[in-house]
Design a protein that fits this description.
Immunoglobulin-like; Ig-like_dom_sf; glycoprotein; signal
């Protein structure tokens, strides 16, 4: 009787569902020169086709006004954060799980943390993961 019970438990342990993906960003801060462009790297692992996923990039205290919101195969114009309008774009290959963004014309107030959030809805079930990227801006002084 004990042998039957153990046999039943062991196969069930292999049926535990794993997370469909995780969001991956660099641990080290990303550096950019004021006035230049910088890429904030973000991808999903394993590399899945993210074309039908939702991708949000936002500052930690500003989740309600993302700097970029990709949904239904397009970048939504609203409710994007107006201070980033025209300066941020998806540059990654969504079909390969790359959801990186390019931030142009870096300003002093752009330094700090950015959250990359990826959401997937499948047959009524929703899954998401997010990770934080830190941007440091530097100034180059021209000594004459």
């Amino acid at each position: 009787m004990l042998m039957r019970w153990i046999w039943f438990i062991v196969p069930m342990s292999f049926c535990i569902e794993q997370d469909p993906f995780s969001v991956v960003v660099p641990r080290a801060p990303v550096y950019g020169l004021l006035g230049s462009s910088v890429t904030l790297p973000c991808s999903i692992s394993p590399p899945l086709n993210a074309v039908n996923f939702e991708v949000l990039w936002f500052r930690p205290q500003e989740a309600h006004t993302p700097i970029l919101f990709y949904q239904d195969l397009e970048i939504r114009k609203n409710p994007r954060n107006p201070q980033y309008q025209g300066r941020v774009s998806l540059i990654g290959g969504l079909d390969k799980g790359n959801v990186s963004v390019k931030l142009e014309n870096i300003r002093l107030e752009d330094k700090g943390e950015y959250i990359c959030r990826v959401e997937k809805t499948d047959e009524g079930e929703e899954w998401y993961d997010e990770a934080t990227v830190s941007l440091r801006s530097t100034v180059v002084l021209n000594a004459r």
